[in-house]
Amino acid sequence: MNAKIKAEKNKVISEISGRIYGSFIEHLGRAVYGGIYEPGHETADDMGFRKDVMKLVRELQVPIVRYPGGNFVSGYNWEDGTGPKEKRPRRMELAWMSTETNEVGIDEFQEWAKRAGTEVMMAVNLGTRGPEEARNLVEYCNSTTDTYYANKRRENGFEEPFNVKVWCLGNEMDGPWQIGHKTAEEYARVACETAKVMKWVDPSIELVASGSSNVDMPTWGTWERTVLRECYEHVDYLSLHNYYGNRENDTAAYLGQSLDMDRFIKVTAGICDEIKAELKSDKTLNLSFDEWNVWFHSNEQDKEIPKWQIAPPLLEDAYNLEDALVVGCLLITLLRNCDRVKMACLAQLVNVIAPIMTETGGKAWAQTIFFPFLDASVNGRGTALQTEVNCPTYSAGGKDAIPYVESVLVENDENTLTLFAVNRSLDDAVTIELEIPGYEDFKPVSQRVLTGDDLKAVNTADDPEAVKPFEATPGNELILPSKSWNMIRFERS
Ligand code: AHR
After folding, report:
1. Using CA atoms, how far apart are residues 309 and 29, in angstroms rounded to an integer?
2. Could you tell which of 212, 291, 348 is best to mutate to test the pocket of ligand 1, judged by most ligand atoms within 8 Å of the CB?
3. Nearest 5°: phi and psi at 60?
4. Which terminal residue of the chain, N or C, has fewer Cβ atoms less than 10 Å from its own Cβ?
5. Alpha-carbon distance 164 to 65, whole Å?
6. Ligand 1 midpoint to CA 66 (Å)
7. Residues enclosing ligand 1, CB less than 6 A?
């Protein structure tokens, strides 16, 4: 099969915000306890953080990590995670029906983030709490004033503020599963008033309003309009969440699900612009796709997990090769929409629907989805170019024109280009004819490929490298093997 890819110098989508390679750690399952934190572990550092996990996180160059939830945040008292550990309460955690020890909280997580070389994206509880607790948390984290919560932070051993820049106004408040679920009108009011007082405490912060929890929410559209009419001038981003999965075991259809993400982004951006026009505003609202990933493998097994355990093994999807190809398509979709998507979080980072898995008391390893994320995060920085792909299409899963090739070209700097491409064909390799006016003196220097015969192959503690990329030397013809993720680097010759 042949495909034509054309991208022209100076025809750009946008500069890429590094924050689109964010991720997420929630107090859920073994993300925190047994994941990033395990004091008895042989690699634990002086604060109990696992250094084997830290090494993998650092490798991914994740610039921002959302915390502490997720559904968890809607029942969370942030004060529980501050100050002397022996005084911290154990709580019945209602989002995931677990026991939360609060051994790790705001105090520890900001230190973990520093060590991991990342910034914290903090979510505030707008489920059971409101503006008062949110403004107090901003003061605790960011203020240098001689006032109660800033002084509390100092008492707890942190003279310097944490300087958390990005804050989410609640989580999935449109979802009936949420603790303190709200109608759009209820959320719009509380989000607006919370945003005001948070910014009065620290005007430099950036705020994310909760958008739709997924594209199938019956309120998608009306939720955004109602919320933005109230909050537009008070917030900086609108969130989107969506998870994908191969529930029907139809690989061809599954690989096409990134088209749904594309539509979700474009329509939501359109709604933001509609409200901008309605309000005659000068401001363009950007998007934060702050929960995205594949999530379906663990759905059934999770129903069997008893309640009220500490760190139960919830949402532990074991990802296979086809999941990695879908994640690759989703990453390319984020890049192709990087004019509006300025933040995104792969949900999540460790153990819970995550690229990094651990055994409590044992090994840590990279799941299949680690590899496309690694390539994009490390090499997908710079400017995304408008990339035309002309290739055959196929029908599957109710869609009648899924292109076999998904691709985007990135100009990293004046001497380097990176092409990301997924070949969705399960049978045929694709030969690429690349037309790059303005870059005629660039030559391909390397190609990293993730593929394999078995689409269901996974990495495990005992076989951590069953699925991993290999390096190829691109020849005169660029070839994408069937069912593959590719990163092709070009340098000026
Ligand atoms: O990431 C897992 C859960 O998915 C989050 O807690 C919630 O926000 C979403 O529904």
Report:
1. 9
2. 291
3. -75, -15
4. C
5. 11
6. 11
7. 26, 69-71, 171-172, 291, 347-348
DSSP 403-449: ESEEEEEEEEETTEEEEEEEE--SS--EEEEEE-TT-TTEEEEEEEE
User: Closest ligand 1 atom to the C-alpha of 95?
Assistant: 6
Establish whether 172 is a catalytic residue.
yes
Q: Please report the pLDDT score of residue 26 as a whole number.
A: 98
Distance CA 390, CA 403 (A): 8
CA distance linking residue 9 with residue 237, whole number of Å: 29
Domains of the chain, with CATH numbers? 2-8+386-492 (2.60.40.1180), 17-379 (3.20.20.80)
Residue whose CA is at the smallest distance from ligand 1 atom 4: 70
pLDDT in tens, 110-168: 999 999 999 999 999 999 999 999 999 999 999 999 999 999 999 999 999 999 999 99
Nearest atom of ligand 1 to the alpha carbon of 243: 4
* DSSP SS3 for 232: helix
H or E stretch covering 7: strand 2-15
- Report the nearest-CA residue for atom 8 of ligand 1: 70
What global pTM score does this model have? 0.98
Nearest Cα residue to atom 9 of ligand 1: 70
Average pLDDT value over all residues in the chain: 98
The closest alpha carbon to 347, from 241, 218, 221, belongs to 241
pLDDT grade, residue 224 (50/70/90)?
Answer: very high
**Per annotation, catalytic residue among 291, 316, 406, 411:** 291
Ligand 1: centre distance to CA 414 (Å) = 40
Please check the confidence at residue 475 and state whether its pLDDT lies above 90: no
Torsion of CA 473, 477, 482, 488, to 10 degrees: 50
Beta-bridged to residue 4, according to DSSP, are 390, 433
The per-residue pLDDT for range 413-466, each reduced to its tens digit, is: 999 999 999 999 999 999 999 999 999 999 999 999 999 999 999 999 999 999
Cα separation of 376 and 170, whole Å?
28
DSSP 130: -
* Cis status, amide bond into 70, omega within 30 of 0: yes
Tokens of 473: 């030397």
Per residue, the 3-state secondary structure of 23-65, as one string, reads EECCCCCCCCECCCECCCCCCECCCCEEHHHHHHHHHHCCCEE
Measured CA to CA in angstroms, residue 89 lies from 77, 92, 134, 209 at distances of 10, 10, 20, 30
- Please name the helix (run of DSSP H) or strand (run of DSSP E) that holds residue 3, with its range, or none: strand 2-15
Specify whether 108 is catalytic. Answer: no
Structural contact between residues 239 and 227, judged by C-beta atoms closer than 8 angstroms:
no
- The residue type found at 361 is G
